[in-house]
Amino acid sequence: MKAEKIEISHPHLFVSFRMRVLKSAYKTKFVEIKSELGSEERIWTISLNTESPNTPLVLLHGFAAGIGFWVKNLDTLSQNRPVYAMDLLGFGRSSRPEFSNDSLEAEKQMVDSIETWRQQMKLDKFILLGHSFGGYLATSYAISYPERVKHLILADPWGFGDKAELPPRNPPLWVKIIGIVFYPFTNLNPLASVRALGPFGPWLIQKLRGDITNKFDDIFDDKSIIPNYIYHCNAQNPTGETAFHHMIQGFGWAKNPMIHRVKNLKNEISITMMYGSNTWMHNLAEKVKEIRPDCSVDVQIIENAGHHIYADQYDQFNEVIVNASNTVDGRTSVVRILTAKNGSHNLKEDEVIESENEEEVRIESS
User: Fold this and answer.
1) CB 280 within 8 A of CB 172
2) 3-state DSSP call for residue 302?
3) Please, are residues 289 and 299 in contact by the beta-carbon 8 Å criterion?
4) Distance from C-alpha of 244 to C-alpha of 233, rounded to nearest angstrom
5) Which 8-state DSSP code applies to residue 158?
6) CB 62 within 8 A of CB 131
7) Which DSSP symbol is given to 87?
């Protein structure tokens, strides 16, 4: 991977995006890692409740996203355990190295960057949660580094289905628009059109991706925050986006479907698979159970949720994650579900400390 130093436009967006919602104390920082080629990279990371002795939970976001997408989840998930979320290498505020053009090699480079990040964070074993593309990478990581994963949680994962074995999907309108209008002209990077519009990019995101931006209307009065956040997550050199498109065939199918590789997971790694009842992804949970008869595979359907289940029905989503995580630690009690409106950790002080590389933030509790 060829390293590229990046400067993020308007980094305050990444801070204010979380500061206005989170009730818990948290730290954010760039975690320095060395790539397999020896180049220095940085992975933007948020950490919560790191003093808890319970098994840590690590979150991997989906394609073209960032750690800010977890704002409806972090308070509840971190109530009884350490929680860490990162901007995947090539996305968000993390470095933008050039990945291999080979699909499996690019996947390996991303997975190895997660392992190097783990080493720098001095984590031993943890629960690994991935949404969409993050679910694909989480599974690949668990196959490559099984000794590190105590439980694997896949939230509406992308990349499991084999195009040759499944009927065509019926994606939402915005996907069809991107596929028809933008895809042929963007050298396999549909978001190039958003970047080309410069300051008008957030406007286009609001028009095309209202299905995401509207999910946060209940916690943000300023409706420009989410479109701007998504834009700045994807405004830089799109190396992660390019790597992703080297991993696909057709429109959105994985070249190396995970359904043919999940058999390589160690049986000791239990799995929770979650799908939205209205998702446009193929639900392959039962197929995974069939492939892995000697492994625990718990299937959860989140009612009235689409692909973005962590935001559509975040209370249900959070409850499933909390219960699965408690089971890993041998706990049977269920914590009270915290939301942006009713929850706080009853912080004893209100302060904001910021720097370029690390911020420790405590939000006023209501």
Assistant:
1) yes
2) strand
3) yes
4) 15
5) S
6) yes
7) P
Domains of the chain: 12-169+243-361 (3.40.50.1820)
Backbone angles phi, psi at 289, to 5 degrees: -60, -40
Q: State the angle between helix axes of 133-144 and 103-121 in degrees (0 to 180), rounded to the nearest 10.
A: 70
Q: How far apart are CA 122 and CA 86, in angstroms?
A: 15
Lowest-confidence segment of 5-14, 117-126, 253-262 by average pLDDT: 5-14
Q: In 3D, which of 97, 24, 116, 15 has the Cα closest to residue 356? A: 15
The answer to whether 276 and 180 are in contact (CB under 8 A) is: no
d(CA 246, CA 108): 13
Beta strands in the chain (DSSP E): 26-34, 40-48, 57-60, 83-86, 126-131, 149-155, 248-249, 253-254, 270-276, 297-302, 352-353, 358-361
pLDDT higher than 90, residue 268: yes
| Cβ pair 61, 94 in contact under 8 A | no
Residue pLDDT, tens place only, 43-86: 999 999 999 999 999 999 999 899 999 999 999 999 999 999 99
Q: How confident is the model at residue 180 (pLDDT cuts 50, 70, 90)?
A: very low
Pairing mode of beta strands 297-302, 270-276: parallel
Q: pLDDT tens-digit profile of 284-308?
A: 999 999 999 999 999 999 999 999 9
- DSSP of 11-37, one letter per residue? THHHHHHHHTT--S-EEEEEEEEE-TT
pLDDT at 232: 76
CA separation for the pair 94, 188 (Å, rounded): 21
140 DSSP β-pair partners: none
Helix, strand, or coil here: 246?
helix
Which among 52, 40, 62, 233 has a CA at the least distance from the CA of 120? Answer: 40
**Distance (Å, whole) CA 317 – CA 302:** 7
How far, rounded to the nearest angstrom, does the alpha carbon of residue 278 sit from its chain's CA centroid?
20
Q: Are 309 and 153 in contact (CB under 8 A)?
A: no
DSSP three-state, residue 300: strand
